[in-house]
Amino acid sequence: MLIRIHPQNPQERLVKQVAATLKGGGIIIYPTDTIYGIGCDIYQKGAVEKICRLKGVDPQKAQLSFVCYDLSDLSNYAKQLSTHVYRALKASLPGPYTFILEASKEVPKILQSKRATVGIRVPDNHIARAIVKEVGNPILSASLPGEFVEDYTDPEIIQERFGAWADFVIDGGPGGAVPSTVIDYTSGEAEVLRAGAGEWPQ
To answer: What is the pTM of this model?
Structure first.
C-alpha cells in the first residue's frame, strides 16, 4: 500500500500506523536522506529473514544497517567508542553516512555478523526518524533488490515494482540516487569503504 507522509511534518497518525505494522512483523519501503530503503523492526526475526530472502543474502553476511533516531542508541548496539570516534559521529549525524562499528551483544542474534560489526545510520530525514522513535528501537536499513536504477527515486514506480513485498511503501517525495558514504571505524580510525552522498573527510 502506498501512503504519503509529509517529509517535513510527518502525520502522527500515519507514523503510529507504520510503527504498529513494524512491531507486528511488517516490512516497509521508506525514504532516507539518500536512497529509498527496505526495512523492518530489527527484533522481528521473521521479517529480517524475509528481507534477506528477497535480496538473496545471508543475514549474517549481508550489508545491513540499523537506522537509529539519534546517537543514544549507540551504547546499546555498539561497543564503547573512543572520544575521537564519538566526536566524529556526533559531528556527522544526522547525515548521509553509515558507520561500521564493533557490535555489542545487544545486536539481535540473526543480525550478528561473523565480523561482529554493526552499521549505524542516523539519516537526516524526518519520516525515517519519526518512525524509529515511535517503534522504540532501530529499524533495519537495506537497499532495494537488484541493480540500482534512477527509477528507484520515484515512490510510485517503487510501489509498482516492489509493493507486493511490503506492507507500506511510504511516499516521502523523490528519493536520492546516491547511497550513503560508508565509514569503517572498527580499527579506531576512519576507513572509507564506499564513497557516497556524504563528503569525507569533513
So the answer is: 0.95
